[in-house]
Amino acid sequence: MKKADFVVTSLLGATVASCSTTSSAPVVACGPDNVATTNADVVAAVDAEAALYYAALDPIVFGGPTDAGLSAASNAAASAVAAAAGHYFPNGCATVTASGNVVTFTMDLCSGPLGLTATSGIFTATLNVVGSSVQAQLAGANIMANTGTVNLSTSGTFTVTNSQKMLHATSQSTGTGPSGNSVNHTGMYTLVWPTGAGWATINGSFSGVGSGNFSGTNMQITDFVGFTNKCPQSGTTFSTFNGGSLMLTFNGTNNAQCTASNATSGSVPLICP
After folding, report:
1. Cβ neighbours around 2 below 10 Å, total
2. Of 143, 141, 117, 126, which Cα lies nearest the Cα of 270?
3. Which are the contacts of 135, defined by CB distance < 8 A and separation ≥ 6?
4. Taking all residues of the chain, what is their mean pLDDT, rounded to a whole number?
């Protein structure tokens, strides 16, 4: 089995600056009940989770073979992530330490990758090198992010091909979104980004979204682009629920545009830099 070394890479051109959040009341005349704002809340939670993965994986690159073994390579990967944390969470807002192959992030009102804002709490990233990939698991309870709260329950496989990095993740994270809706969901997504770019694309499929009359909603996220220090740049979500469907379109502003099968439309306020 091929073994790998790991080194730290800089976040080229993507230094994160502190920023403030903006919000407005989530009054949306699009679709029934709170389906539109629930979808936006779930997207915010998935984007926050993806941003934490980004910070925990982007500093890692594969190198040449080593005689130290995969356990040592896993520990080296964790050390590289801890050493690079200041690139992703600047201004001393995060304390990041490595113990073996486990990285612990302690954050205090951090801004971060992919539009992450107002992030506080503690989470761990457990990294295991397996051949030419890294198995990563994130865990943490009551993490505040983008004015919502996330309980991380997710794992994924990280690979690098040329200058492109990719994570295939499975997520069952729970919590509450910026508009106060449940963000409980079950599903899978991919996170793809060029080395050092400061942005990434999410594509995913989730079930079990929503509550009440519209529980069990299915949601597809397509080409959602999160960008450091910016609102979501592009992408859509399409959800099907009891009695209809609804689409959100992201366009770089702090509002997502909503259209629903009941011939209503409107905009959904977002929390972003």
Report:
1. 9
2. 117
3. 127, 128, 129, 155, 156, 157, 158
4. 87
Three-class DSSP category at 37: helix
What's the N-to-C CA distance of the chain in angstroms? Answer: 44
Confidence (pTM):
0.88
Residues whose CB is less than 8 angstroms from the CB of residue 179 and which lie 6 or more positions away in sequence, other chains included? 26, 34, 37, 38, 40, 41, 269
| Rounded Cα–Cα distance for residues 46 and 240 (Å) | 18
φ, ψ for residue 42, nearest 5 deg: -65, -40
CA 191 to chain centre: 8
Rounded to the nearest angstrom, the gap between the alpha carbon of residue 207 and the centroid of all alpha carbons in its chain is 17
Chain centroid to Cα 173, Å, comes to 11
pLDDT tens for 143-187 read: 999 899 999 999 999 999 877 999 999 999 999 999 999 999 999
Distance CA 81, CA 56 (A): 6
Consecutive H or E run containing 192: strand 186-194
Give the tens place of pLDDT for each residue, 28-86. Answer: 779 888 899 999 999 999 999 999 999 999 999 776 444 456 788 999 999 999 999 99
> Which amino acid type is present at position 151?
N
**Cβ pair 193, 165 in contact under 8 A:** yes
pLDDT at 13 over 70: no
Q: Largest Cα–Cα distance in the chain?
A: 63
Q: Give per-residue burial for 70-87: e unless 16+ CB within 10 Å, then b.
A: bebbbbbbbbbbbebbbb
Distances (CA, A) of 175 to 44, 138, 149, 239: 11, 15, 5, 19
Residue pair 6/80 in contact (Cβ under 8 Å)? The answer is: yes
Q: Are 260 and 254 in contact (CB under 8 A)?
A: no
